[in-house]
Amino acid sequence: MSTFETWxxxxxxxxxxxxxxxxxxxxxxxxxxxxxxxxxxxxTLNECFDxxxxxxxxxxxxxxxxxxxxxxxxGFHVEAFSLGGRSGQxxxxxxxxxxxxxxxxxxxxxxxxxxxxxxxxISLCAPLPWSLKWHDNRADxxxxxxxxxxxLTCHSPYESQSSVxxxxxxxxxxxxxxxxxxxxxxxAALIKRDDLASIGLIGSASKWASFEGRLKREGYxxxxxxxxxxxxxxxxxxKLTNKTPYAIALTVVTELLWLTNTPSSQENRGLDSRVLQxxxxxxxxxxx
Length: 288
Known about the structure:
Elements: H1 7-17, E1 21-30, E2 40-43, E3 48-50, H2 56-70, E4 75-82, E5 94-102, E6 107-112, H3 116-125, E7 130-135, E8 152-155, H4 160-165, E9 172-175, H5 180-190, E10 198-201, H6 205-217, H7 222-225, E11 228-229, H8 245-259, H9 273-281
Parallel strand pairs: 6-7, 6-9, 7-8, 9-10, 10-11
Antiparallel strand pairs: 1-2, 1-5, 2-3, 4-5
Helix pairs in contact: 3-8
């Protein structure tokens, strides 16, 4: 149990870092209960922050929250506790706990290159629920305000092989450095993996044709080179005549939105209004 961070401090940090978590809020109370409605705690798969009052019902709340995280069941859920029955606590009251499960980052994005287009891409990604890793070998290339952007980590310097090796599975990767040799080294390292979500390379069709020919001469297979998408940012297969960094970045992020799009499989969104009405009159009601 973590004691050095309050629930609101942990909630803010986890939202910024993009880690999945549950906010547990006591919403009703009848009879004798450890705490009153409004008590909150935050729960991750490995840590807890703040308390609902302790005791068996709190551990049951933690277990329920972690079950939601493990099953990727996000949204609102209610747990009901008869403290003398379900939880075996002597105070004997009744309470309901609202569990708000947040999924954290919905996608991992790695951007190699912090030039004009790279900076615009990172800025456009800021409001999106993505975890961003940004790499560039040039000193002092990351402006100070980027270092405070939520869900973003900056890496400089980096080494192609080791940086690629540490990317999480299913990462979407963009290669747009200031150096063609560096681009090539990254692509050669990336296509050795078979668990990345996508690999995009900036540049013209002729640049990719040159890279592809070199890769095949060096023994890379058609299956490996087919992982690379180049040019990037083609919307409906059309070339953009506006070649400003911002315009190019817009098309690249639009492309990423489609690549990361995963329709929700949950038909039930939020709590049924009838459940809320019941909770107002009967705090022992439960639903999920």
